[in-house]
Write a structure and sequence with these properties.
Blueprint: E1 12-14, H1 38-44, E2 55-56, H2 68-79, H3 89-96, H4 103-117, E3 119-120, H5 132-142, E4 144-145, H6 147-160, E5 164-172, E6 188-195, E7 198-202, H7 204-208, E8 209-212, E9 215-218, H8 229-232, E10 236-238, E11 246-247, H9 252-257, H10 263-271, H11 276-283, E12 293-294, E13 304-308, E14 314-315, E15 321-327, E16 330-337, E17 340-343, E18 345-348, E19 351-357, E20 361-369, E21 376-384
Parallel strand pairs: 3-4, 14-21
Antiparallel strand pairs: 1-19, 2-11, 5-6, 5-10, 6-7, 8-9, 12-21, 13-15, 15-19, 16-17, 16-20, 18-19, 20-21
Helix pairs in contact: 2-4, 3-6, 4-6, 5-6
Length: 385
């Protein structure tokens, strides 16, 4: 694939280097977490004309780093769990965490087992009237559940090994979601877990698989394990705004109005190193066109990190935009716009930077890796007006 060496009129690239660039259940503390029900708040919500600065409150913890080596050890143990352990939740929980070295690894072991062993019950009722303990036991017996069965099971297994947990109900942008949907009530349940005095969010239902053509397809996904609140909020809005762990919290009106990028796109933004708070701030802007399209490739996910790039999906013709990124093992990083390829400048080992004034149409930022230098993988795609 050839790249143009000359700059077209609509494609000016600046090569200056960028600067590095059950008993009583506990709730989170009051104060910054306090908030009205999203259903009530929607009616009173007025769009802000200013940028909304959002922060994660102190009650929420940061996502832990569990090394791939440790995950492999835990996974081998968990996936070899004897089937007869399902007869007793406490016995199962004790087995699952035998090789765990801390509470984060215990939570991972439980999440991993549920994701591999519990199928989604497409024909079941959204919420059960039975107790959490009964739902957990029934989920183990049947090997399938709706969302409240998943959360009840993860909660009970966690509590068996000393992990405090709380089910959270709210509004999800799941497989039936369409842009502009207005919610009439909660339609999903997930879980909040408290470790080392900090709260974390997880969705074991979405971690177990996806719905394709009306059927459940098991496909383990760690994206929803202790997900940062600023990412979780894109498709999980709690009925009780305190469980957002965000200040200011989103209203239901905002949540409904947001242009949802989709699960895959959000995962891509995470892999590419984008700040969830920056994404949230961009999408909370009045009249936001939504986020750019982001792509990642499973065998290369850890090799690209974006340091600077516009977040909005639509760019202005002729306006300057700077991109800086790190791409380990890259042969080249290039813009594609108006049929012209132009390389970004290498400004250090594995770091690239460039400024572009795009022409109308589409702008792609793509990476070619040294093991296949003629194939470019688009990582960010924008529309240009």
């Amino acid at each position: 694939m050839k790249r143009a060496l000359a700059l077209s009129v609509g494609l000016a690239v600046g090569l200056a280097a960028a600067a590095g660039c059950g008993g009583a259940e506990k709730k989170p503390g009051e104060g910054a977490l306090a908030g009205a029900s999203p259903v009530a708040a929607r009616l009173a919500a007025k769009p802000s004309a200013q940028r909304i600065r959002t922060r994660v409150v102190s009650e929420a913890g940061t996502r832990p780093v569990i090394s791939e080596a440790r995950k492999a050890i835990i996974d081998r143990h968990v996936l070899a769990a004897p089937a007869d352990l399902r007869r007793d939740p406490d016995t199962l929980a004790q087995y699952l965490v035998e090789v765990a070295e801390n509470d984060f690894e215990k939570a991972w072991a439980i999440y991993r087992w549920i994701g591999a062993n519990i199928a989604y019950d497409i024909g079941g009722d959204p919420f059960s009237e039975s107790s959490a303990e009964a739902r957990a036991e029934r989920t183990l017996e049947r090997g399938m559940a709706r969302c409240d069965g998943y959360s009840s099971l993860m909660r009970q297994l966690g509590q068996s090994v000393g992990i405090e947990a709380r089910p959270v109900r709210g509004y999800a942008k799941g497989h039936t979601y369409v842009q502009g949907k207005r919610y009439t009530g909660a339609d999903h349940e997930w879980i909040a877990i408290r470790i080392d005095g900090k709260w974390h969010l997880a969705d074991p239902t979405w971690g177990a698989g996806v719905i394709e053509n009306g059927r459940f397809k098991g496909h383990f996904d760690d994206t929803f394990f202790l997900t940062p609140p600023e990412y979780f909020i894109f498709d999980h809005l709690p009925e009780d705004s305190r469980w957002q762990f965000l200040d200011p919290p989103l209203t239901l009106a905002e949540y409904e109005a947001q242009r949802y990028p989709g699960r895959m796109e959000l995962r891509c933004f995470q892999y590419l190193g984008f700040s969830g708070l920056d994404l949230l701030e961009s999408i909370r802007m009045p009249g936001s066109p939504g986020l750019a399209r982001a792509h990642e490739y499973p065998d290369r996910a850890e090799r690209v990190r974006v340091e600077a790039a516009p977040l909005e999906s639509r760019l202005r013709t002729g306006a300057p935009y700077r991109f800086t990124l790190e791409a380990a093992g890259a042969a080249a990083v290039a813009f594609l716009n108006e049929g012209q390829w132009v390389d970004l400048m290498r400004i250090g080992q594995d770091r690239y930077s460039g400024e572009i004034r795009p022409g109308p149409g589409e702008l792609k930022v793509s990476v070619a890796f040294s093991d296949n230098p003629d194939r470019f993988f688009p990582i960010l795609i924008y529309g240009v007006d």
